[in-house]
Structure formats: structure tokens, C-alpha cells
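Page 47, continued from p. 46.
Same chain as before, 380 aa.
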Amino acid sequence: MTETTPRLELESITRVFDGKPVVKGVSLRLDQGQVTCLLGPSGCGKSTTLRIAAGVDRQTSGRVLVDGKVVSDDTHHLPPEKRSIGLMFQDFALFPHLSVADNVAFGLRGVSKAEKAARVNELLERVHLPDAGDKYPHQLSGGEQQRVALARALAPRPRVLLMDEPFSGLDNRLRDGIRDETLSLLKDEGTSVLLVTHEPDEAMRMADQIALMRNGQIIQTGAPYNLYNNPVDREAAAFFSDINVIHGVVRNALTETPFGQFLTPGLVDGADVEIVIRPQHLKMDFDRGGKGPNPTPRDGVPARGTVMRARFMGNESLVEFRMDYDGSKLSATVPGVFLPKPGTPLWLTIRRDRCFVFPCKNQSRVDDPYDHEALGIAAS
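Result:
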């Protein structure tokens, strides 16, 4: 194995149940020490993909490789215990009749009693449970059980750790701290991790790489920053945050909106487009000329809306508008407390450089000489 050989690689994995494909040609690689989150809504096939990687399920077609060696293909299938892969599930699956120390030691094979005890003590210290070895799982809190499950999974020093929604059963107040502690331990151990989650915040917090999955397919892969700031389509943008959608129609490679014209090259005249902008990138002012202390062309043309409702959300305020231009509804957020009364007219401007322009599905394209990443730039 070389330094560039992936720890885990899935090649064109397909899984069919009762004639219905639930995983469709999934390809993914985990490099050494990398944390990859397989992110998507419930039922998209991510847990099935994880089970195939683990060896507890077998793909209909495709290959699974660990350290460059094929562990499953059309002709042979290595069982989970021979793959040097650790597993951690959302219910922790601790053995209730074993002590915490014995749970952690369960996967250690072929080592002396002293070595086993040393590894158990080391990991219990690392997960901040140095005195819990003689306790039983039912005597621990949910967060403590999660830490024991992590220690057990890491005890044999697996090349790859597969985690299926491991934090979903924890109280929200505990979750962030335990995620951070888990990530720190995984990085220290140098373990490559494939984490399945349906929570974008969790993926953004933990992942070096996110693979966004939908309907059995990976639709976009990249660093969290890239997926958030360059979503492949409207649904991908909406998965990571609330969005506003402004509808328009292409005329001569331009689309008219309440905020002026947008460049939309590559689409035929009459094509429907969706301009997506997140609520935090809408700016609110009481007069048409108010563009803040440093106005720039990226703020575009102001458009007037009437406040429908305003709510304080804890660290920001959410204001909902009905736009004078076409009666559409938009939402804007602003840090702190800002609660204008319903019926208040306000002028909105948008961050042009933070807009995403997507064709509606099934729209016809023409030959496009332009860079599609520039579609959100304002027309001059």
C-alpha cells in the first residue's frame, strides 16, 4: 500500500432489493485519516451503502477495496471480521452483561492480558471515563455509553471506522461536545472514518469530505465549504439551509427579477429558472437608497416588500415579506433583535455574489461558451 492508496474504496456499488435498486452506482474513496460523511435524507440508501462497506450486506454489483485489496466483488466476499473495519451504530449495541472494560476489550484478539488491559485503560482515559471500567452499561448515561461504544470500536485499531448515525440518540445539549471529543480522538488515532448522517450541521462540523446522497446516488462530493457555497442544484442548496427561491423566465440570456436582471446564458428563451439565495444574504433597509456604509454593485437593485411576520430566534431575527413586485414571499435574517411590525414596508437588496442560478428541471440548453459558476453575477 502506498500513501496515495485509499483506505476504503467503493467502485460502482449497486444494491437491488426485490427488483428495486436502492443504491445506484455509488463510487467513493476514503483516504488515510480522512473523515467522510455520507449525508442525505432518510431512505436515500446511505445506511445500505455503509453496510455493504462493512460486509454485513453484499452489493448486487461493484467492488469494495480496503487498502487497495478487493474484499468483495462478484466472485468473493470477505466477512466483516476479516476486513480490519470497525463498526459503530446509533444504538451503541453494548453488551449489557459485560462490564465497561470487558465491552471495550471485546474486539481485542491475539494480545496478552497485560496488553489488553493497557489498551482498555488507555481508551477509557481518552474518552474521559477512567473509573468506569467496573460499571455496566445500564449504569451509564447515554453520552457515556456512546463514549464506551467508540472506545470499543477503536480498541483493535481498525484501518477504517464506519459510524451509522452514532449521535442521533443523544440530547441536543450534549451532542456538540461529544462530537468534538469524538473527532479529536479519531484524528489522534489516525483512523479513516465513514460517517452516515442525515444532519447537515453534523456533517459540516465533522467532515473533511461530504458525499451528498439522494435517491440511491451520490450527487455531489467535496469539502463542506465547497458543497455549501457551490451546490449542484436547488435541492442541494436547500439541504444545507433555508433558502429563498425567485422564479424567472429567460429572455436573450437574461432573467428579469425584482432585483434586476441576472445573466442566464446557456438556456433557451422561455426557459424557467430558479434564483436561490439564503435568508442571511438579504439586506433590509427603511428607504430605497439605504445600502449600508459601503454600498457595492453586488447588492443590485433594491426591491420593496411588506413585512408579514417577524420573529426572534435566539441569536437572530427572521423577517418574512410579501414582495410588491409579484406578490412572492421572501425571508431575511439579521443578527440580534429586529422586529418590525406587520405591514411595515422595507427595501431589500440581495448579495449577487451569494446567489445560485439553476434551470428548472427538464429545461432545454443551448451551447454555452460561458462559465456556469458566473451565472449569479449581475448583468451590467
